[in-house]
UniProtKB/TrEMBL annotation:
<keyword id="KW-0004">4Fe-4S</keyword>
<dbReference type="InterPro" id="IPR025895">
    <property type="entry name" value="LAM_C_dom"/>
</dbReference>
<keyword id="KW-0411">Iron-sulfur</keyword>
<keyword id="KW-0663">Pyridoxal phosphate</keyword>
<keyword id="KW-0408">Iron</keyword>
<keyword id="KW-0949">S-adenosyl-L-methionine</keyword>
<keyword id="KW-0413">Isomerase</keyword>
<dbReference type="InterPro" id="IPR013785">
    <property type="entry name" value="Aldolase_TIM"/>
</dbReference>
<dbReference type="InterPro" id="IPR003739">
    <property type="entry name" value="Lys_aminomutase/Glu_NH3_mut"/>
</dbReference>
<protein>
    <submittedName>
        <fullName>Lysine 2,3-aminomutase</fullName>
    </submittedName>
</protein>
<feature type="domain" description="Radical SAM core">
    <location>
        <begin position="89"/>
        <end position="296"/>
    </location>
</feature>
<dbReference type="InterPro" id="IPR007197">
    <property type="entry name" value="rSAM"/>
</dbReference>
<keyword id="KW-0479">Metal-binding</keyword>
<comment type="similarity">
    <text>Belongs to the radical SAM superfamily. KamA family.</text>
</comment>
<dbReference type="InterPro" id="IPR058240">
    <property type="entry name" value="rSAM_sf"/>
</dbReference>
<dbReference type="Pfam" id="PF12544">
    <property type="entry name" value="LAM_C"/>
</dbReference>
<dbReference type="Pfam" id="PF04055">
    <property type="entry name" value="Radical_SAM"/>
</dbReference>
C-alpha cells in the first residue's frame, strides 16, 4: 500500500474522531454528517490552527449546512445536461466527465455536495465506458474535463486506461483534470503518477487552493512534480466568506501560487448550492478584491472573476459591462444574451 493510500485510511470521517483533536459538539455535527459526508486527511487536519479558522471552515461540518436556505441541490442543472450518467454536456465543444464520486477531503462548500461522497452515487466502470463512448460519438467535443469527485484518487492504472481511451478518439484535442489532492493529499502526486500522466499531452490540471495556509512545502513539491512532467497547472479559487474574502488574503494566495508554478485561473463566486449559503459573499466584494489585486500583483497573477449562472446557463465574467444592477440582486447577461437576475449574497 502506498503512502497516500495509508493516509486515506487515516482520514477523519466522524465527529467522534474529530473530538479527539478539538472540542466539538459531536451530536450537532453528526446530524450534518448524516446528510453530507465528512472526510479530512491527516495533512489537511494538520493545517488547522484553531477552531473556526479558514482551514476549519472549509472541511469541518457546520450546522448551517442544514438550514433551509432556499437554494437548489443542483444549481447548475447538471442532472438535466447529462446524456449519460458520467457526462455533463453543457457547452458544444466541451464535456465534463465525472469519473469519480470520492474526494480526499469533502469541502463543505462543494457544488456537488448532493452526491459527492454519498454511497448511492458511485461511478461504475460501465458508466465510465458509456461516457467514453458518448464522447467518441460526438465529434464536436474537442475538450474533455475529468472531474467528480477527484480523478486522482483512482489508481494510476485505471486513470491511465481512461486517458489512453480518450487519446484514441481523434477529435479530442485537449484533456483536463480537476483535482484538489495537491492541496489536501499531496502525497498522492507520486513520480509514478507523473510518469503516467506525461504520456497524454496536451494535458492540463486545475487544482483548488483557497487560502495561503494551504501553500505548504508538501503542496509545492506536489505541484513541482506535475509541472516538471510538463503538465500546465492552473488554480480555481472559490470566494468564501470568512475564508478568503479579503484583498490581502487573496493577494498572498495568488503570489504564492505563482511561486509554485500554478497560474491563478478562476475566482469563482459561490454557486447557489443548498447547504452553502453561509459561505456566500456579495458580488461587490469580489469586484473590490479584483480591483485591489490590480494594484498589488502582476496581471499574470490575477484570476478571472466568474459566476456560473443558475440553470446551466454558463459562466460569465464579472466585469462592469455585465453588472447592470447591484443591490439585493444583480442583473447579469448570459453568453447567449439572456438577462439573468442573480441573488447577490446575504
Amino acid at each position: 500500500m502506498e503512502l497516500w493510500q495509508q493516509q486515506l485510511k487515516q482520514c477523519i470521517t466522524t465527529p467522534a474522531q474529530l473530538a479527539e483533536h478539538f472540542p466539538v459538539d459531536v451530536a450537532a455535527l453528526e446530524a450534518v454528517v448524516e446528510r453530507y459526508p465528512m472526510r479530512i486527511t491527516p495533512h489537511y487536519l494538520g493545517l488547522i490552527r484553531e477552531i473556526g479558522d479558514p482551514i476549519w471552515k472549509q472541511c469541518v461540518p457546520d450546522p448551517a449546512e442544514l438550514l433551509a436556505d432556499g437554494l437548489p441541490a443542483d444549481p447548475l442543472n447538471e442532472e438535466h445536461l447529462s446524456p449519460v450518467p458520467s457526462i455533463v454536456h453543457r457547452y458544444p465543444d466541451r464535456a465534463l466527465f465525472l469519473v469519480s464520486n470520492v474526494c480526499a477531503a469533502y469541502c463543505r462548500f462543494c457544488t456537488r455536495k448532493r452526491k459527492v461522497g454519498c454511497g448511492g452515487h458511485s461511478v461504475s466502470f460501465g458508466e465510465i465506458l458509456d461516457g467514453i463512448d458518448y464522447i467518441g460519438r460526438n465529434p464536436r467535443i474537442k475538450d474533455v474535463l475529468l472531474s467528480g469527485g477527484d480523478p486522482l484518487l483512482m489508481s494510476d492504472r485505471m486513470l491511465g486506461d481512461i486517458l489512453a481511451r480518450l487519446r484514441r478518439i481523434p477529435h479530442v484535442e485537449v484533456i483536463r483534470i480537476g483535482s484538489r489532492v495537491p492541496v489536501t493529499l499531496p502525497e498522492r502526486i507520486t513520480e509514478e503518477l507523473c510518469r503516467t500522466l506525461r504520456q497524454f499531452h496536451p494535458l492540463y490540471l486545475n487544482t483548488h487552493f483557497n487560502h495561503p495556509a494551504e501553500l505548504t512545502a508538501a503542496a509545492a513539491e506536489a505541484c513541482g512534480r506535475l509541472a516538471d512532467a510538463g503538465i500546465a497547472l492552473g488554480n480555481q479559487t472559490v470566494l468564501l466568506a470568512g475564508v478568503n474574502d479579503e484583498p490581502a488574503v487573496m493577494a498572498e494566495l495568488v503570489r504564492g501560487l505563482m511561486r509554485i508554478r500554478v497560474r491563478p485561473y478562476y475566482l469563482h463566486q459561490m454557486d447557489l448550492t443548498a447547504g452553502t449559503g453561509h459561505f456566500r459573499s456579495r458580488l461587490e466584494r469580489g469586484l473590490e478584491i479584483l480591483a485591489a489585486l490590480g494594484g498589488e500583483v502582476s496581471g499574470m497573477a490575477i484570476p478571472q472573476y466568474v459566476v456560473d449562472l443558475p440553470g446551466g446557463k454558463g459562466k460569465v465574467p464579472l466585469v462592469p459591462g455585465y453588472l447592470e444592477r447591484l443591490g439585493e440582486s444583480a442583473l447579469l447577461r448570459a453568453p447567449d444574451g439572456e438577462r439573468i437576475v442573480y441573488p447577490n449574497g446575504d
